[in-house]
Amino acid sequence: MTFHGLRHTHASQLIASGVDIVTISKRLGHAKPSVTLAIYAHMFHTDDSKAANAINAALLYRPIPPGTKPFGGNPGGKLVAHPE
Fold first, then answer.
1. Which of 36, 33, 48 is nearest to 8 (CA)?
2. Has this prediction a pTM greater than 0.70?
3. HEC assignment per residue over 3-37
């Protein structure tokens, strides 16, 4: 394996392990995290459902209609309904 390949593998493993981009950028010696993101953006496969649930709950707070699937984590059951 080449040095470049080892460097890429190192960065890829850090990303897959959930290490933040600032830390990865510093380890790779990039001037800014934006450089790292430009190179490795395709490696980030994140699930933003937590963020979506939070903003939906904040903006569209309403009771769940019967027969719909809730999302979020409010045990009181008054969450935004998730369309099936």
1. 36
2. no
3. HHHHHHHHHHHHHHCCCCHHHHHHHHCCCCHHHHH
